[in-house]
Write a structure and sequence with these properties.
- There is one protein chain.
- The protein is α/β, with parallel strands linked by helices.
- It has 5 domains: 93 residues, 3-Layer(aba) Sandwich (GIY-YIG endonuclease); 63 residues; 180 residues, P-loop containing nucleotide triphosphate hydrolases (Rossmann fold, 3-Layer(aba) Sandwich), CATH 3.40.50; 181 residues, 3-Layer(aba) Sandwich (Rossmann fold); 86 residues, 2-Layer Sandwich (Alpha-Beta Plaits).
- Helix content is 29%, strand content 23%.
- It has 19 helices and 31 strands.
- The strands form 8 sheets. Strands 10-11-9-12-15-8-16 form a 7-stranded parallel sheet, with helices on both faces.
- A hairpin with an 8-residue loop joins strand 1 and strand 2.
- The two termini are 53 Å apart.
- The model has no long low-confidence stretch (mean pLDDT 92).
- The structure holds adenosine-5'-diphosphate and zinc ion.
Length: 717
Amino acid sequence: MSIISVLTPYPVDKAYDYVLPPHMTAGVGSYVTVPLGAREVVGVVFGAGEGKTDPAKLKAVLAVHDLPPLSDQHRQFVDWVASYNMMPRGMALKLTLSVPDITKPEKLALGYRRSARPEDIEGIKPLYQKLWSLASEDKPEKASELARRAGVGVGVLKTLVRQGYLEAASLPAQMPCVHPDPYRSGAVLSPDQKKAADILLSSSAKPILLDGVTGSGKTEVYFEAVAHCLKQGKQVLILLPEIALSNAFLDRFQSRFGCAPALWHSSVSASRRKTTWRGVARGECKVIVGARSALFLPYANLGLIIVDEEHDPAYKQEEGGFYHARDMAVVRGHLSKIPVILVSATPSLETMHNVWANKYTHVTLPDRYAGASLPDIKIIDLTKDKPERQRFISPMLKQALADTLSAGGQSLLFLNRRGYAPLTLCRTCGHRLECPRCSAWLIEHRSSSKLHCHHCGYHAPIPPTCPACGDKDSLVACGPGVERIFDEVTSYFPSARIDILSSDTATTHDDLKEKLSNIRDHRLDIIIGTQIIAKGHHFPKLTCVGVVDADLGLSGGELRATERTYQLLHQVAGRAGRAQEKGTVYLQTYQPGTGIMKALSAHDRDGFLSLEAKARETSHMPPYSRLAGLILSGRTEAIVRSAAQALARSAPHASGLRVLGPAEAPMFRLRGQYRFRLLVQADKNIDLQKMLKHWLSGHKLPGAVRLQVDIDPQSFS
Ligand code: ADP
Ligand code: ZN
C-alpha cells in the first residue's frame, strides 16, 4: 500500500497524505479525487507521502483521473509562485485548477451518419435517399448541417434515424488551434525586422525585450518566433493585457497561421474553457492567447512565452492572490528553460533595469514600418491658451479639430474619465457627493442619469437638493468626463459625426467591434475615448489626437504615476498617423515645463527613462529597492486601526529594512471596509519574503481583520 502527498486547491500550504488503494496507480503530477473534510475535491499528487501519520488513520484516494500528469516544471512553478507572492501553495495550485469539472471528459455534441446497408435504401422515398446518400459513412455531421445540405428539415432526418438508416455518433471535440500552420508565408520583413527576428530565433537563455516604437512591426516580428516554435511541435503562449479588446490582433493571427488561437480570458464560456484546458494539457491546443491567468494552464509542451505590452498594469492581479503575470512568466520560462519575449514600445523601468544589468537581451526596432513617420507632439499650455469658462478644449485644439475636419481627416480626443463629471459639488455649502461605502466621489453619468461609484458599483439618482444643506438646484458638475467633452465638441461641430468610446458605451464585445470598425472605416469624424482606445488599434485615417488632460494621471503621487502617464500618453499618441499621412498630437497641460512633457514632445523615451530611473534611485524605490504592501481591512475602524498599529510595533528591526505606516489607505473605505496600509521597503540583498514570513507568522491578528500581502505593489490605493 503506498502513501502519496496531495495538494488541493484551497488556501492551505500543506499537501496532505492519502492512501492509494492497491487497484489504483498514480504518479507524481497525477490528478486525483480525495476526501477533504466533508467534500470530495480534485488535487494533484506532489510527491510520496511523509509517512508521519499512522496509515490506518489516513483517508484513501477516491479516484485517479485520466489526464496527463502536471509536469515537474509546473509543480515547481506552483511552489515558486506561492513562496514569492506569499500565498498558500493550494492557492497557487488553484490558479491552475481554475476550471470546474476538468476531470470529466467533455460532453460531445451528437452528429449523424449512415447506418443501413446499401440494399435497404432502394425502396424508400427519393428525398430520403438523397439525405442518406449525402450522409457520410463514418464521419458524423451536425443534424442541422446535414439537413440543410440535403434541402430537408431536421424532422425528415429524425425519421430516417428512427427507421435505422442513419445513426447518431459523437462529433469530435471542437478543440481550438490544433493545426496552426507555421509554414504559411508571413509578411516580408524589412531588414531591421529581419535582424530582430533572427535574434529572437537564435534561442537565448535570457529573456528578451523586443522594444520598438508603435507601428514598427513588433507583432510581425514575434510571429516569426511563434512560427519557429510551432515548427518544433511545441506550444506557444501569448499574453495580452486586454484580450477582449484585441480583435485586430486575432484577425492578424488567423491570416498568418490559418486558424484562430485558443482564447483564455474571463469572458470565455465555462465549457469552452474546459475544452481548452484539456486540450492544453494533452498538447493538442498549440497557441493560447490569453490574459494573465493563461500562464497557469497545464501546458504539455510549452516552448515559448510572449508578453505583449509588458509594461501594462493589467498584468498585476490584485484580487484573490496578488501576483504579477509578467514577472511570473519570466520565472516560468526560466524553470522550463524556454524563451520569454517581452514586447513594448514603452518598457517598464523594471524591465529596462534588467536590460541595463545585462540580465535581458535587448532587441530594438528603431523605425515605424514603411516609412510612416512618428507624429508631431505639441504641448498646449493651458495657463496661456485657456478654454472658455466651463469648457475644456483650448482654442488651439479646437482649431486643430476644425482643420482636420475640413481636410477630411479623423480626430481622437483622449480623456481617461468615464461619465459626465468626476465630481458633483454643492455651490452653497461645498458638500461633495461621495459613495456611502467607499472613499471616492460619485461620478455623474448623463447616459443613465445617475451617480455611480466606479469602485463598488453603487449608483443612485442625482438628488434634486443638496443632501447636506438642502439647498435646491445648487449641485454643479465639476470637471470633465468623456460625456461632457462630447457635449462641448458637438456644440462646436454640430454636423460632425462624433461618438464616445468607453467601457460604458461599448459594453459587449460586439458593440466594441462595431465601434472600432466605425472608426477604421471613417464613419466617424471625432472619437472621444478613454484608455480603451489606446491599445494597439490601427486607425488609418486618424491624424489628429488631442489629450484633454495630460496631467490627469500625475496627481495623487503614486510611485509609478509619471511612468504610467508617459506610457499611456505615448500609446495614445501612437494612434496618430499610422498610415501615409503624418499625425499631430496635442497635449493639454498646466505643467508644460516638466520633464515628462518635454520628453514626450521630443520623442525622447530613453531620456525620460533615465530621468525616472534617477528619481527612483535617489528615493531608494524599486527597481533600486524592494517593496511589499501590507493591507489590513475590516468592518470596524477602531479595530483595524489598532490591529495595524500593533502589527507595526511588532515589525522587525534590521539594517536595510524600513517599515512605513500604518497610514489610512488612500481608499480608506472600500465596499464598506476600513483599510490601513503598511509599506515595507528593503534593500535588494534582503530576503524580503523570508523576513515577512517570520514576522507575520509570529504575530496574531484579531479575527475581524484581514491582512493581504502585496509583493512588488503596483497600486498604493
Ligand atoms: P507594432 O506591434 O510594433 O505596433 P505592428 O506589428 O502592429 O507594429 O505593425 C504596424 C503595421 O504595419 C501593421 O498594420 C502591420 O501589418 C504593418 N507591418 C509591419 N511590418 C510589416 C511588414 N514587414 N510587411 C507588411 N506590413 C507590415
Ligand atoms: Zn463605492
